[in-house]
Here is the input.
Amino acid sequence: MGSLSRPSWGFMLLMFVLIAVVGLQINSNTIFPAWVIGSSGTESGVDCEEQASCAGFFTEGPARKVVMSITDFGGIGDGTTSNTAAFRRAIQHLQNYEERGGAQLNVPRGKWLTGSFNLTSNFTLFLEKGAVILGSQDPEEWPIIEPLPSYGRGRERSGGRHISLIHGDGLNNVVITGHNGRIDGQGKMWWDMWWNRTLKHTRGHLLELMNSNNILISNLTFCNSPFWTIHPVYCSNVVIKNMIILAPFDAPNTDGIDPDSSTHVCIEDCYIESGDDLVAVKSGWDQYGIAIARPSSNIIIRRVSGTTPTCSGVGIGSEMSGGISNISVENLYVRDSAAGVRIKTDKGRGGYITNVNVKNIRMERVKIPIRFSRGANDHPDEGWDPKAIPKVKGIFFSNLTSTDSKKPPLLEGIEDAPYEDICMRSVSILGLAPSAKWNCQFILGFTDGVTPMPCPQLQNNTSSSWCLYS
Here is the structure.
């Protein structure tokens, strides 16, 4: 009999790991962020091929020359001491390195209470593991600033608006990242003021960057924003990836990510729960947006998952008066939500929505999977023009499946300005009652492989090649 060799330590270690993995039990109801399972994940495995990414919109530069900690500026992370002055001192000091290799401000483990502070260019804000930035509960630490020119007033109240907790204007080359640290807006105070109708000025965002370029926001958890959570406006080359964004479902207007009058924006691998749209693309409000004419374009929304019982997974509009074009939404997973993908416009908006491509979408228990809506009668003031009619053309849906759907698609265009070139291919809306029928008004388009049978307005078979081969 031949001698038996002893197993190698490497082999024994491999067997130990295998046994441990097999024994690991994960609750089937657990919801993971998109980058943990991936939109292509199944019970039998995941696709190991390299996933497409739009992160190249951000150009990474050399490491920052100067790295300091908030504690170097007197910061105290006990959750009760105000660090507003410490953050403002830190940014003022590190601003001196804008043209000398840039700077990084580290926020270590702890709870760092602060009011609003402004960032600077060539700068990294880095939250270490266990670091939590807490928004101040003193409204005076969220000062009033001018309204956005493309809105003409605060979005909720006339006049100015509260600044965001973390703010920046006219910046270049900014990174906000970390080891999954957290920024908590502690928004309940603001939500209560909204519900109680005691709000005097429009609430602030958790993060707003204006007129800025080359921005990266990644690997953090943002929660409890007073208003829209991440708001890049008049920006270009923005990448938002590997983010978790959370707000209570009854927290009003707590959109996850709202690119606004911005170009070359990449939003990918994010998990969002909110009291409003997970992602909403905007470009200004009525006559003010028309006058400023700053469109949102070349935006990619990829591998985003989440839930919003009151709104939509991805919304286009309704503030779209500067124009919206070249939008790609792909590998979206939406569950337990009011709508899946929604186009929102109205008379008075003007502007346009064109070339929106929505593909590879999965929905579960979504009330209205596809919705075009109008008639919110939501205008900034009496100066809006009822003759300013938005133009909507070239909306493409493909490979979309909705299970346990509550209602069929509701597609409402605008009288005298129908939405044109609506294309749907391989769309399955499942779980509806046999009597359920699509509701369509003032739209024109073509479908192929759509279940249940769509409305007659989408059965235009003449010159359908634009849809079949788009």
Residues 1-44 have pLDDT under 50 and may be disordered. The chain is about 10% helix and 40% strand.
